[in-house]
Specification:
The complex is a heterodimer of chains A (286) and B (172).
Chain A lengths: L4 H19 L14 H7 L10 H7 L2 E6 L11 E4 L1 H4 L5 H13 L3 E2 L48 E2 L6 H17 L3 E4 L9 H10 L6 E5 L6 H9 L3 E5 L5 H6 L2 E5 H16 L7
Parallel strand pairs in A: 1-5, 5-8, 6-7, 6-8
Antiparallel strand pairs in A: 1-2, 3-4
Chain B lengths: L6 H16 L58 H4 L7 H4 L25 H12 L4 H4 L1 H20 L11
Helix pairs in contact in B: 4-6
Classes of the chains: A alpha/beta (286), B mainly alpha (172).
Chain lengths: 286, 172
């Protein structure tokens, strides 16, 4: 099933408007009477004695749930549920921050090597072509001038030009959480126990994923650099199935691949890292 | 190709012959402008004579070689190795252990350009001189080095003597 990535972006905008109505996190302006559940608070990562929440706030800040699936043939056994932190996986869909993140990723490593030599860098003689007066010709000093064919470029591009710029830390954090939230909301995020597969043939593996409608392109993310042998050999042959460690995860890849598959370890690592950076008090100058 | 023998010419010739022969104007040749059609359309470019040859073989060279055309469209491989994992490790300071930053991993960019935010030629050249000044660049590439030095001194004088302070994006 081939899905166009441009149609995808349109559906993202349509579904984002629904998300806004359902999961908007408003700032806590006023005091409320009900108390939060300690168990729920600890699963979400909030200190239970921090503040009191209303019921709608509880539902918004409650953890999201996802099935833990497997890449092997589906069994009839019971499936477990993985709880997902709403701050990371149910963030307000900031599409403007997604755009900023993607543009930053494309540009900050880009270097333009366009360089047009200036008249003092052209390798031509400095000899006066003909005398100043008496020839009936225009007056010239050398053949390097921009007027001449083979001469210099007067105001051309000069030297390697870098487009490096830094995006603020929080913008990048929120870009990551927006991308993860959108993937979850649009059924493009699947959680998997591990990356073990029972198929050796790339085409057979592709058929397995196509039957589940897991998108033409899939990104598999695990906590380690060393991936299992079978899936490495299979995805090596398929260019649109890619493996990545957690530290390599980024907004551009999440948008490029239709489906995102995380292992349970990857989910834990991502949540731990994101919440650490969101709640730390010793933020250096980033 | 039917433009070579448009219908109105046939009508005119037929009209002459028929008028000469019988003295009458046949009804079929009396047509209003809206009824005159050339291939289901009214005649366009009335009086225009096409001077390009409309028949025969296509143009070719004497050698028998290929005629220059627009290049064939070759779509880019969007899932090549570098494009499939583009952007990997850009968030390594967030999702990694924290000792690495994206600026430390810009391996595709030349060493002296990594993390350089300036778009001005003068500042780029100064940075290059600082990085390569003591590395032997001046002895390995003496002409380039000399030209770079001269360019730096020229730009110093130009920026400080001839350019306005708030030049913005137009300068260099």
């Amino acid at each position: 099933m081939a899905r166009n990535i441009f149609e995808k972006s349109r559906t993202i905008l349509q579904k984002a408007s629904q998300l806004i109505e359902n999961t908007m996190i408003r700032p806590l302006n006023r005091k409320v009477s009900t108390q939060i559940d300690n168990q729920q608070a600890s699963s979400v990562g909030i200190h239970p004695a921090a503040f009191e929440l209303a019921s709608w706030q509880k539902s918004v800040l409650s953890p999201r749930e996802a099935w833990i699936e497997s890449l092997k043939a589906e069994n009839s056994e019971e499936k477990r549920i993985q709880l997902l932190n709403p701050t990371v996986f149910a963030h307000y869909p900031r599409i403007d921050l997604l755009f900023k993140n993607v543009r930053w990723q494309k540009l900050y490593k880009h270097v333009s090597y366009a360089n047009a030599p200036v008249r003092h860098e052209i390798s031509r003689s400095l000899k006066k072509p003909w005398p100043q007066k008496g020839m009936g010709k225009a007056r010239h000093g050398d053949r390097r001038s921009p007027i001449w064919i083979g001469g210099a470029k007067a105001h051309g591009p000069r030297g390697p030009k870098t487009y490096y710029h830094e995006l603020s830390f929080m913008v990048r954090l929120k870009g990551l959480s927006t991308a993860l939230s959108m993937k979850l909301a649009q059924d493009d995020l699947h959680i998997v126990e591990n990356l073990d597969i029972d198929v050796d043939d790339p085409k057979a593996f592709e058929e397995v994923l196509d039957s589940r409608l897991w998108g033409p392109s899939v990104l598999f993310v695990d906590d380690t650099d060393f991936m299992p042998e079978r899936i490495s050999l299979v995805t090596d042959k398929i260019p649109h199935y890619n493996l990545m460690p957690v530290y390599g995860l980024n907004v551009y890849s999440m948008l490029k691949h239709t489906t995102l598959v995380l292992t349970v370890d990857a989910v834990k690592r991502i949540e731990e890292r994101m919440l650490y950076h969101l709640n730390r008090t010793n933020m250096p100058n980033v | 190709m039917s433009r070579l023998i448009p219908n109105y010419v046939i009508i005119a010739t037929r009209n002459f012959t028929s008028v000469k022969s019988s003295g009458k104007v046949p009804e079929k040749n009396m047509k209003y402008h809206s009824e005159k059609i050339v291939e289901d359309r009214p005649p366009r470019d009335f009086g225009y004579e096409e001077k390009l040859l409309q028949e025969g073989l296509l143009p070719r060279l004497k050698d028998g070689g290929p005629v220059k055309n627009l290049p064939d469209f070759k779509p880019k491989d969007r899932w090549s190795q570098k494009r499939a994992v583009f952007g990997q490790n850009d968030y390594i300071d967030i999702l990694g252990s924290g000792n690495l930053r994206p600026i430390d991993i810009m391996y595709g960019v030349p060493y002296w350009l990594r993390g350089l935010k300036d778009n001005r030629e003068y500042q780029t050249l100064i940075r290059k001189r600082v990085v390569y000044g003591l590395s032997g660049y001046s002895t390995q590439y003496p002409t380039k080095w000399e030209k770079m030095q001269k360019r730096i001194s020229y730009l110093y004088r130009f920026i400080n003597n001839y350019q306005k302070q708030d030049v913005g994006w137009k300068g260099q």
